[in-house]
């Protein structure tokens, strides 16, 4: 059975991006950057690879990515119509009519869609965000990997947007980096 992992970066105060979906890479340097490039290379989008000196596209954990429309639009605004060509890409949206080449649109229930993906052959499934989709898929997560960076945003896009319905996870790994960043891994109880 394939696992659904929400791997996401956030500020110390819980935001994944600024109010206008702007991303600030503050804290994504040094040993955290080296760890992400070594462990989760397939999550580095195409438009960021050249500046980071990345040429390889070997997949270690994931062969599929599921993202919300806002994440997809942010990637397109950065010049990446199809940000993860080495992964099977799905954008969850009920209104997106013309996806980029190599991207499939999921217009129905994302939880049902992911339940259908899990038993298929392949590697893991990466949930790339956004907060509404993360909230809708919360009960389907097998793993939650959070990169917390040492910056306070003050406002922005939260990690989740969902109704109050606590979901319990077990801490399975915690690392502190010299840059002040942390990576916390939780698995579903």
Describe this structure in words.
The protein has 189 residues and is an alpha/beta fold. It is built from five helices and ten strands; from the N terminus they run ββααβαββαβαββββ. The protein has helices spanning 30-39, 46-52, 69-77, 110-117, 131-137; strands at 4-11, 15-17, 62-68, 88-92, 103-106, 124-129, 143-149, 157-158, 169-176, 182-188. The strands form two sheets. Strands 5-4-3-6-1-7-10-9 form an eight-stranded mixed sheet. Strands 2-8 form a two-stranded antiparallel ribbon. α3 (69-77) links the parallel β3 (62-68) and β4 (88-92). The radius of gyration is 16 Å and the shape is globular.
**Strand percentage, roughly?**
25-35%
* DSSP helical segment count: 5
- Cα Rg: 16 Å
Helix/strand order, N-terminal first? EEHHEHEEHEHEEEE
For the record, give the distance between the C-alpha atoms at the N and C termini, rounded to a whole number: 17 Å
Secondary structure: number of strands: 10
Strand order of the largest sheet: 5-4-3-6-1-7-10-9
Uncertain parts:
none
Structural class: alpha/beta
- How much helical structure, as a percent, in the residues? 10-25%
Shape call:
globular
Average pLDDT, to the nearest integer? 86
Sheet of most strands: 8 strands, mixed
- Which oligomeric form is depicted? single chain
């Amino acid at each position: 059975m394939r696992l659904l992992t929400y791997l996401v970066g956030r500020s110390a105060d819980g935001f994944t991006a600024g109010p206008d979906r702007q991303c600030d890479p503050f804290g994504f340097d040094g040993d955290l950057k080296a760890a992400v490039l070594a462990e989760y290379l397939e999550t580095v989008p195409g438009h960021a690879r050249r500046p980071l000196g990345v040429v390889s596209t070997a997949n270690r954990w994931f062969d599929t990515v599921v993202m919300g429309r806002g994440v997809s639009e942010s990637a397109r605004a950065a010049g990446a119509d199809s940000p993860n060509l080495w992964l099977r890409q799905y954008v969850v949206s009920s209104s997106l009519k013309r996806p980029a080449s190599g991207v499939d649109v999921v217009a129905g229930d994302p939880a049902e869609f992911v339940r259908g993906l899990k038993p298929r052959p392949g590697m893991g499934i990466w949930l790339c965000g956004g907060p509404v989709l993360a909230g809708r898929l919360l009960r389907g997560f097998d793993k939650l990997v959070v990169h917390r960076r040492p910056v306070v945003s003050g406002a922005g896009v939260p990690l989740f947007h969902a109704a109050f319905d606590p979901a319990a996870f077990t801490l399975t790994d915690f690392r502190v980096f010299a840059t002040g960043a942390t990576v916390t891994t939780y698995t579903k109880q």
